[in-house]
Amino acid sequence: MTDATNDDLVLPFSVDALDVRGRVARLGPALDSILRRHDYPPAVSRLLGEAVILNVLFATALKMEGRVILQIQSNGPVSLLVTDFTSPEGLRGYAKFDEAAIAALPDSHTLQDLVGEGSLALTVDPRANMRRYQGVVALSGESLEEVALAYFTQSEQIPTMVRLAVAETIERQPGEEPRRTWRGGGVTVQFLPEAADRIVVRDLDPGDAPDGIDADDREDDDAWVEAAARTQSAMDHELVDPGISAERLLLRLFHQRDVRVFDPFTLSADCNCSTHRIKTMLEQFDDGDRSSMVEDGVIKVTCEFCNTHYTFDPEKLEPIGEPH
Q: Domains in the chain and their CATH numbers?
């Protein structure tokens, strides 16, 4: 049975003995809502679910109001994937893919099988009068976890460990028929000692350090080695099981290390599209462009994120019927 108090939240934590801070994400109904709206093949749903969780773990570490967008572009079967976190809790996402290429994938496939060559971009768009920031990293690695580690190494130079898991599970409620539902979870830790010289910054293969800079060949700090190993030990079923709370997972990972938790962030599947927004967008096109959009006497617009369909009169740009 699902415990709603364990779902759709991010729980920040710290382990002072190891000089690490981190977050645990647990997504249930919010993730299921995002994925069910599109009914993607399982491989695409899992990848989009992992990207949603990764974006949440990144965005909730930022002390700002605004949007954080994670985008994957590639030449592989999944050519485009976008997830959008809008503070304080709104989540949405979608993917574009080659259906035949996805169907031809083997049951056991890697990230490279899904995306081929491409890039992952994280864009931070604050609401205040602050500049947008974007970090980009190549899609190298066998999993999205490995790409995330490369991103943090390149962009933040902070030792980071990430675990992600997404699965379609069977949910049973008293008096109801069992139903399939998507669930996901993730945990990340970062090494943040007071003494910065304890951090070993390693260059990315094949090397992106400026000429004349010697590689740091020191061994990693013992505290970070332990923290990373403990985080890496989180099993997929622990990250998605609604019966294992975020607090229980942290106690298992960092027992005898006095893990401290803080107030959680709540999450929800929420798209900000609306009839007014779509109309405003259409008004920005000239008459010729709008004429090319007319099909069967109307203009039809579908929100990629939530799959809601809007229909407009091309002459008056007034909505026809209710969005569906």
A: 4-269 (3.55.30.10), 275-312 (no CATH)
